[in-house]
């Protein structure tokens, strides 16, 4: 195997495509949501994402949203499964009985097509696609016709992701995406979660009701949340399933995870199209947390009285293309 390569090899018994470039490697499982389940620095032994257990892949297949980088569309929760759009009300399945909401959409469990993969002098890459049209589960509930492509590449700096959406239909379509990215906190070997602090470019915290839906009000940030947006704080300072506006700093919208003992950092730079953050840390259990860049406010189609641009309730006209790049990369001490 050459140092820089792209090839097919299983991950825990499931067909995957592996990318290698310099010291980095990554693995994508096309058949389960095009989930990029591993991103590693093999020289340092760093593992940056929460990876599925190779001996228990059934757990991954049952809940792919809590491993790797799952793509969500439409993301997060929708009250009673209702999805108003352009004067129509579409009904999504209520798949979270505890809240009576629809949760996470239709792409993170879908089987994605591999358009191609390869390597050049500059990168190793894979391109995956999802064509939504009649017969697709997404189209069954939201009858829009479009193509989504995900391009992952490794280069000398780390991992890059490019999301591209093209409206192939004849009417304006909702363009709502998020990534439920599961960050492995103790990414340095022989380190402990207590060694780490995270900084995230959050703005205001939105109040959520008992159904985890926004009330329209904001809550004051706690002292630890102020640290979260400033110098950093443990990602496990309390149990979080919190919704924030994004407030870029120095022109960048990002999460930074720092090992305070070694000085090594992981940066997740997500781009300005993601105007909201969800931050979830699995009740502080398990050594991972999910800083989730999200284009739209939770339940945005059902929110009244706020500008569509502010809450990310955005769309694509026929033939239009949306594209956003994100990057995950280390900075070494």
Automatic annotation (TrEMBL):
Gene3D superfamilies: 2.70.98.10. InterPro entries: Aldose_1/G6P_1-epimerase, Gal_mutarotase_sf_dom, GH-type_carb-bd. It comes from the Bacteria. It comes from Paenibacillus illinoisensis. CDD domains: Aldose_epim. This is Aldose 1-epimerase. Transmembrane segments: none annotated.
